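Hi F.,

I've been meaning to write this up properly since the lab meeting, where we talked about keeping a consistent format for the predictions we share between groups. The idea is simple: the sequence comes first, exactly as it goes in, then the structure tokens exactly as they come out, then a line or two of notes. No screenshots and no reformatting. I'm using this chain as the first example so we have something concrete to point to.
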Amino acid sequence: MAQADIIHPRKSVSPSWFGYGWPAILGLLALTFPTWRYITTESWSTEQGSHSPLVLASGLWLLVRMLSASRNIHERPAAGWAMAAILPMAIALILFRTAAVIELEVYAMYAVFVAVLYAFIGWRALVALWFPLFYLAFAVPLPDSLVAALTNPLKLWISDAAVTILYWAGYPIASSGVTIQIGQYQLLVAAACAGLNSLITLTALTLFYVYLSHRAQWRYMAALTLVSVPVAIFSNLVRVLILVLLTFHAGEAAAQGFLHYFAGMTTFATALVTIYAVDRAILALLALGRPMANADQS
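Output, unedited:
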């Protein structure tokens, strides 16, 4: 960033149009209200989307925080550029809603949000805010067909892994595909492993932690981010083990009640604790390596 930009930030290219900004925002809120209603009632009310509000809240918190920090590079674009960014996304939103393509409608709504933000702060500030904008995209629900394609192979692997672990522990357990038989109970991993649908959210929360902790070390940040996927898979394995054990010891009714949701919370806690432990372990190893390297040089 140039020193001149810090002391004398650029002025808006065309500030006069901005007086109509709030009416435009209210209009866009009215435009996107049906989409928001779908997300909150149809997606966030399900187990697979119940953690998206956490991603949304933490992402908005980081966005507002970085917006304030990047104020010196805010420069509103001309009205023509602002409308060129907003209108196509608004039209796409209406078209997808008319065609009842809800997945694309939600992404169009997110694009409208980014376009409106561009109209307020300009391109340079928008680029500076790349991480919170990228992170907020994880709050957008994915198409069910895509989720199924990504998670079905993982369900098979987790089913086999859970059965193997509990068999070694002495439990009367066996499996056939995604069906687990333990004692007199039979479970479908498709139901017991609903936490796999939150794999994206777990990865997003890991990205959030990594960015806040190591944003100045992009190589380390990228390496630790790669760990997020196996950590999320491991957390879901823990979830399945908990649900199978609850079913065996407390009965099917208990496992599908409050304790079922408690197991879901455990998934997220396990993921965050594991990624934190991996981060601390790597930093400890790096700290041990530095004295050895200094000793070799001396």
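Notes:
The longest helix spans residues 258-297.
Residues 59 and 134 are 9 Å apart (CA to CA).

If this format works for you, I'll send the rest the same way.

G.
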